[in-house]
Amino acid sequence: MAYSYPDSRGSVAPKTCEDGTAISDIVVLGAAVYRPGEPSRILRQRLDTAIALWKKRPDARLIMSGDATWDHANEPKVMRDYAISKGVPRKKVFQDPEGYSTSETLRNVARDFNSRCLVIVTNQFHVPRAVWLGRSYHLETYGVYPKPELPLPGAKKRQVREFMARAKDFWLGWGYWFQSFVTYG
User: Fold this and answer.
1) Which residues pair with residue 94 across a beta bridge?
2) What is the separation of C-alpha 178 from the centre of its chain, rounded to a whole number of angstroms?
3) 2-16: pLDDT as tens digits
4) Under 8 Å between Cβ of 110 and 138
5) Where are the domains of the chain?
6) How far apart are CA 180 and CA 185, in angstroms?
7) Which DSSP string corresponds to 146-182?
8) SS3 77
C-alpha cells in the first residue's frame, strides 16, 4: 500500500489530475544498485509501490529515473528490467538515464516526456522536496511512498543528506523557478 503527500489523511494518490484527465506518468526515483542487475532494498520498495500503483492506472507510463553512468549499476535499466519481470509491459516502461538528482529528473520529465501531471514514487523523507521541485517545474505533482517502509540502515546519513539537499534546493529554488518559468511558461 502506498500513501500520498501532502494529503495528511494518508490517502492513495488520486486517479485524475485537477482538470479531470488521467495521471499520465508514474516517476520512480532511482537509488543504489549494489549487485549487477539487482535493485537495493530501498529501490525495490519504491519499485514495488510504483508497480502496484501502475496496476490501478495501466494507461500511465512508468518512468524509471536514475544514474546510467555505469553499466554494472545502471539504475534505470535495472529498474526497467525489474518492472518487466513483475509483469509490466515493456511498452509502458521508459527510462530517464540522466536523473542524477531529483531536480534533474523532474526537469527531464517535463522536457523530454512532456509530462504535466504525475505521481512521483520515492521514500517518505524525500517526498516533500520531490513534490515541491515538481511543482517548481509547473508539473502537477503528487508524491507516494512505500508504506510501511521497512527499516533501512543508514537513516541518520539519509536525514543529513536530505537536510543538505533541502537547503541547496531552497537556495537554488529561485533559479529552478526562474529557469522553469522561462522554459515552460
Assistant:
1) 63
2) 22
3) 334 444 333 467 878
4) yes
5) 2-184
6) 7
7) ESSPPP-TTHHHHHHHHHHHHHHHHHHHHHHHHHHHH
8) helix
CATH code for the part of the protein at 2-184: 3.40.50.620
Q: Provide the residue count of the chain.
A: 185
Look up residue 27 and give its amino acid. Answer: V
- Taking phi first (over 0 means left), then psi (-120 to 50 degrees means alpha), and beta for anything else, what does residue 32 get? beta
β-strands 117-121, 93-96 pairing: unpaired
pLDDT in tens, 125-174: 888 889 988 988 899 999 999 876 666 666 667 666 655 665 566 656 55
Can you give the pTM of this predicted structure? Answer: 0.80
Q: Could you tell me the three cell numbers for 31? A: 537509488
Q: Three cell numbers at 7?
A: 494529503
